[in-house]
Design brief:
single chain; Helicase, Ruva Protein, domain 3; 5 helices; PDCD5-like_sf; DNA binding
């Protein structure tokens, strides 16, 4: 993926963010349609790049993850695309490698939960 494609994706993302923050109300319908078309094009390019990078089993697993946790799937897609852009991925990503990548991401983002049990003391309890 070239620098021009990356810059186009960044510009589209910036437009999306501005649209989410209320800037869309000031635009006419033609501009909104153009933005929607640009967003669709960016999504199509993203999916095309992922299909070139991921094996079919890995794509299926990522699609199943996206059904349950779309944010996590998008994050994994971003990591895979970034690694491919940097040249760290030279061959198709297998399902096993995707699983190990998911485990690494889970370890980095997992939150430690702590359970504290506080017992209430009965006010009417007599120790006599």
């Amino acid at each position: 993926m070239g620098d021009s494609e990356l810059e186009a994706i960044r510009q589209r993302r910036m437009q999306e963010l501005m649209a989410q923050h209320g800037m869309a109300n000031q635009q006419n319908p033609d501009q909104r349609n153009a933005q929607e078309d640009a967003k669709r094009e960016a999504d199509e390019r993203r999916q095309l790049m992922l299909s070139q990078i991921l094996s079919s089993q890995a794509r299926e697993r990522l699609a199943r993850i996206a059904l349950v946790k779309p944010d996590k799937a998008k994050g994994v897609e971003d990591v895979v695309l970034r690694a491919a852009q940097m040249g760290q991925i030279t061959e198709k990503v297998s399902e096993e490698r995707l699983i190990s990548l998911l485990e690494q991401i889970n370890n980095q983002t997992s939150k430690q939960t702590k359970v504290t049990i506080q017992r209430r003391r009965n006010v009417l309890e007599d120790d006599d």
